[in-house]
């Protein structure tokens, strides 16, 4: 099933390998600089595979993603020289799993890569991401295409959309290494108000108060497990601690950021893995909520042992034996050479440089426009009003739609005019927003559960409607360009 780890041998700290403060910018430049090259390669394959089976497209896309993430691991593991200490059981074979971990740093998503590459499942990693990340240049649109799921918090969480997307992946036989951070936000010991609010909520709900993690949210975890319970093999409960995150007074401090990590400020990462068979996970949401909190109680006890143990020999490590897991350059260096070589070759010619710059600019614009159009398609297709707040791409999209008034009604009014059910309208003077409305009436909701054909049909209609929205924007391109230029120049 899995291998039991053995005792680790001492190793010089990562800082002894050299100070990375002067060269972390080079690492970041290579990682970001390779993005247009990667997007062009993926875009070419996306077009070529338009009429091929979805399973074939996904297999090649996973391979491409593995190449890029292997380059990421070259810098974050091989270059930094960080020591990876694994505790517990890490299965050798690939599995369809949900990965649940504590969230404390922008490096956390790379920890999932660190484990996945050791199972030869790096290309299968997909994330549940907060909604705002969909506007990241180039990456925002691609993460969704690779299988990432953008979710909003609390009342805005769209359960139906997440279920639909997971169902489409299962229908295509997509390998699933789904990463979820149930806390919803990063734990930062300096943000005492956030920690206090989390602890107060836990006490009010009758749960144990947690010290080194936040109270977990259940929605994304429950929807993912409930949708894929017959598709999954297990759940990985992962607890992560970064060594060197205790100050001189013995108090925990903020975990390293990606930039600090590339500066070699983290000598060791301690990772505790607990593989949980799916049959041991309760299906009912109420029971799963308590189960998830109990799992975070276990995480909290591990972190209390790591940070607060009175015994110096037990501090800065998890209970039990560990293994020093080192990643071979054979798994990362080829990817670095391929992507950096292709990027350098592109930048050596004038035509290549133009293509490179245009990919950054137009890839970002088209990606954001597509995401905005998809959001509008979901709302206006059902006759709902879609509020466009002060985001350049959304405003520009609204301006383009305004040029085609026969299809859409676009008006500007003060924000707060559309209160949610049970809320009082609050208007902020001077702040305006655009409201896009479909001229068609709302479609009455169906009372029957969606079948496979219904889900795929809805998705298909959304794509068609998204294309219609983009067509409308192009028809109103004068307003689109004028408003976009206004945002760029101001």
TrEMBL record:
Every Phospholipid/glycerol acyltransferase domain range: 97-222
Keywords from the named record: Acyltransferase, Lipid biosynthesis, Lipid metabolism, Phospholipid biosynthesis, Phospholipid metabolism, Transferase
Lineage summary: Eukaryota, Metazoa, Chordata, Craniata, Vertebrata
One Pfam family this sequence matches: Acyltransferase
Family per record: Belongs to the 1-acyl-sn-glycerol-3-phosphate acyltransferase family.
Source organism of this protein record: Canis lupus familiaris (Dog)
InterPro entries membership: Acyltransf_C, Plipid/glycerol_acylTrfase
Keyword Lipid metabolism appears in the UniProt entry: yes
Protein name as annotated: 1-acylglycerol-3-phosphate O-acyltransferase 5
Signal peptide coordinates: none
One biological process term in Gene Ontology: phospholipid biosynthetic process
A GO term for molecular function: acyltransferase activity
